[in-house]
């Protein structure tokens, strides 16, 4: 079991509120990713779950047990750090077995569990080596092994892939997802990397300045971002956000801004309202018969399979993403269109999603 309830978690450092009233229910077996920019409080929240930071307010439960004031070693949670925190003078075998020796488990049990974990993580050949004789990826697996050997209620991971090069990071990502599938354990994983979050998580919790912006499956947070912050954080390039006015013309509702005039696909009369209009770069069509957006191409980036065109639309800069070639050239006028289903509307002051 590994069900974690976070209730109104708050942690302050002097004048800084690092974690501000965060509540999340993490189900047994989830791979929950805490995602957000540097300083948003994700590490502090993870450390609070581990018991390495004390909350100023709020409560934590593990499998229905209140662990808010339980010391870290009695929480039945295993933490994997970014730095791996391996003991340099101990072999891989002794590093992995360390938590069991600290708990004075019988020798036979330790040997058996270390051997099992080494098999699972393909470390059997490396058991006699010291950490300095391992690659970054192998060290990362040893750190994971030391967590695994305890058979904890949940695994807490703080940017465990950030010390690996790009290629190894991609393959280790895949290994972690496989491991999660096999163990069926609860993983709580901190990263600022949206690709890691989107590819590994069963759900993503997005934090901004200590507050929870949204929690949902990768598809939910990408397709229906709850705020302009989430919309602007996910996606590469992120969602285009433009201030616009919503109003009725004839029987239909439109969003308009300088050089933008798009139908929202809604019938009826609405009072004129200020909004923030959101459109993902991949949802803008070029060379379509029904233009709704007029701009000038400024720059075209070639990504191999795709291209990204950056266009000036009135005072706004808008990115368009599509299969190569987009057939757009810098300096040329461009007409863009978008399906009404792909339009997002946000409140201009609060940034919260309206539609
Ligand atoms: P990063 O991705 O850069 O690690 P993060 O999202 O994990 O960032 P935290 O490390 O949780 O963010 O920090 C949240 C806020 O709390 C930051 O403003 C940080 O400066 C502050 N903070 C964190 N730890 C301490 C501390 N021990 N003392 C004072 N302030 C701290």
Concise structural overview:
With 355 residues, the chain is of the alpha+beta class.
CATH superfamily of the largest domain, by name, is P-loop containing nucleotide triphosphate hydrolases
- In terms of structural class, how would the helical and strand content be classed? alpha+beta
Give the assembly state of these chains: single chain
Radius of gyration: 25 Å
Order of helices and strands: EEEHEEEHHHEHEHEEHHEEEEEEEEEE
CATH architecture of the largest domain: 3-Layer(aba) Sandwich
Identify the overall geometry: elongated
Question: How helical, in percent, are the residues?
Answer: 10-25%
SSE order and pairing:
Blueprint: E1 4-13, E2 16-26, E3 31-35, H1 42-50, E4 57-62, E5 65-66, E6 77-80, H2 92-102, H3 107-120, H4 136-148, E7 154-158, H5 166-183, E8 186-191, H6 194-200, E9 203-208, E10 211-216, H7 218-223, H8 228-233, E11 240-249, E12 252-257, E13 260-267, E14 273-279, E15 285-286, E16 293-302, E17 306-313, E18 316-323, E19 333-337, E20 344-346
Parallel strand pairs: 3-8, 3-9, 6-7, 7-8
Antiparallel strand pairs: 1-2, 1-4, 4-5, 9-10, 11-12, 11-14, 12-13, 14-20, 15-19, 16-17, 16-19, 17-18
Helix pairs in contact: 2-3, 2-4
This protein binds adenosine-5'-triphosphate.
């Amino acid at each position: 079991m590994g069900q974690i309830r976070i209730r109104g978690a708050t942690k302050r450092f002097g004048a800084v509120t690092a974690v501000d009233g965060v509540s999340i229910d993490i189900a047994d077996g989830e791979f929950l990713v805490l995602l957000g920019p540097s300083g948003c409080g994700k590490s502090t929240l993870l450390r609070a779950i581990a018991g390495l930071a004390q909350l100023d307010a709020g409560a934590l439960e593990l499998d229905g047990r209140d662990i808010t004031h339980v010391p870290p070693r009695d929480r039945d949670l295993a933490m994997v750090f970014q730095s791996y925190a391996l003991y340099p003078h101990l072999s891989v075998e002794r590093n992995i077995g360390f938590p069991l020796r600290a708990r004075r488990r019988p020798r036979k049990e330790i040997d058996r569990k270390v051997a099992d974990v080494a098999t699972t993580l393909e470390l059997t050949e490396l058991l006699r080596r010291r950490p300095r004789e391992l690659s970054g990826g192998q060290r990362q697996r040893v750190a994971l092994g030391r967590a695994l050997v305890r058979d904890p209620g949940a695994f807490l991971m703080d940017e465990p892939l950030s010390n690996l090069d790009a290629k190894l990071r991609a393959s280790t990502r895949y290994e972690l997802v496989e491991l999660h599938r096999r163990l069926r354990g609860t993983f709580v994983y901190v990263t600022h990397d949206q690709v890691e979050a989107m590819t590994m998580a069963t759900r993503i919790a997005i934090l901004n300045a200590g507050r929870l912006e949204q929690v949902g499956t990768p598809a939910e947070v990408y397709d229906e971002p709850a705020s302009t912050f989430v919309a602007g954080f996910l996606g590469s390039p992120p969602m285009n956000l433009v201030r616009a006015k919503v109003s009725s013309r004839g029987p239909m509702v439109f969003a308009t801004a300088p050089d933008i005039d798009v139908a929202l696909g809604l019938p009826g009369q609405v009072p004129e309202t200020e909004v923030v209009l959101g459109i993902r770069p991949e949802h803008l069509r070029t060379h379509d018969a029904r233009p709704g957006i007029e701009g000038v191409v400024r720059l075209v980036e070639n990504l191999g399979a795709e291209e990204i065109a950056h266009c000036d639309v009135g005072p706004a800069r808008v990115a368009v993403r599509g299969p190569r070639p987009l057939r757009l050239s810098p300096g040329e006028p461009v007409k863009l269109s978008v399906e009404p289903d792909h339009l997002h509307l946000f409140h201009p002051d609060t940034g919260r999603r309206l539609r």
